């Protein structure tokens, strides 16, 4: 699968997640923002229909007790499994590992920046994922509205970083349409 094709499929899955699961990102009285694990589950659910049935889509998958060797760790820190992967369970190598997704609700709040992509790339190289993406929802909320501006940064196993900086997933007008559709779909 080509990178542009995979990006289109991830974009469609993200759109579906935002529209169908808007209450995940929209503020509600007494609730907090969603965890990356929760969002990645719903993104994976939507992505499942976007890839061929030969691929498995798993959220927060710990492949055989995935111990990250020191060569995969950054600054000696232990890192958890990726948020979402598209792979063929029980098989190793690039022909069986398509995509690794690292997701964050708001990278600026935690200020991880390029370190998250570096971790994703280290895991990508170690387990042979053809593609890796750092998907930052850039979710900001106040008491009445949600503001989401997804950005992503991609890397390939062969070429390394493909997008030097995080790029918007949608143009402003497309994002405005998606948010309007999502808000209309919320039952009141």
Task: Describe the protein's architecture and organization.
- The chain is of the alpha+beta class and 188 residues long.
- The protein has one domain (3-185).
- It contains 6 helices and 9 strands.
- It has helices at residues 3-20, 22-25, 36-48, 107-110, 114-127, 172-185, and strands spanning 56-59, 84-87, 97-104, 131-136, 139-141, 146-148, 151-156, 160-161, 167-168.
- A hairpin with a 4-residue loop joins strand 5 and strand 6 (146-148).
- Helix 1 crosses helix 3 (36-48).
- The longest helix has 18 residues, at 3-20.
- The chain is globular and about 45 Å long.
- The relative contact order is 0.16.
Through-space gap between termini: 41 Å
Strand tally = 9
| Tally of alpha and pi helices | 6
Largest sheet: 7 strands, mixed
The helix-strand sequence is HHHEEEHHEEEEEEH
- Using the alpha-carbon principal axes, give the shape: globular
Summarize the structure.
By secondary structure, the protein is α+β, with helices and mostly antiparallel strands.
Observed structural traits:
single chain, seven-stranded mixed sheet, two-stranded antiparallel ribbon, 6 helices, 36% helix, alpha+beta, 188 residues, globular
Which SSEs are present, and which pair or pack?
Layout: H1 3-20, H2 22-25, H3 36-48, E1 56-59, E2 84-87, E3 97-104, H4 107-110, H5 114-127, E4 131-136, E5 139-141, E6 146-148, E7 151-156, E8 160-161, E9 167-168, H6 172-185
Parallel strand pairs: 3-4
Antiparallel strand pairs: 1-2, 2-3, 4-7, 5-6, 7-8, 7-9
């Amino acid at each position: 699968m080509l990178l542009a094709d995979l990006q289109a499929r991830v974009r469609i899955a993200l759109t579906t997640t935002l529209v169908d699961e808007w209450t995940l990102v929209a503020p509600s009285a007494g609730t907090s923002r969603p965890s990356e694990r929760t969002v990645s589950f719903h993104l994976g659910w939507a992505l499942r229909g976007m890839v061929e049935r030969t691929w498995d889509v798993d959220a927060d998958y710990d492949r055989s007790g995935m111990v990250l060797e020191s060569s995969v760790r950054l600054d000696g820190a232990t890192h958890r499994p990726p948020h979402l992967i598209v792979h063929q369970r029980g098989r190793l190598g690039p022909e069986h590992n398509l995509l690794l997704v690292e997701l964050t609700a708001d990278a600026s709040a935690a200020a991880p920046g390029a370190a998250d992509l570096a971790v994703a790339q280290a895991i990508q190289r170690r387990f042979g994922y053809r593609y890796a993406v750092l998907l930052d929802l850039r979710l900001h909320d106040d008491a009445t509205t949600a503001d989401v501006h997804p950005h992503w940064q991609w890397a390939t196993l062969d070429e390394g970083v493909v997008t030097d900086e995080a790029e918007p997933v949608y143009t402003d007008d497309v994002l405005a349409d998606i948010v309007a559709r999502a808000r209309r779909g919320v039952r009141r």
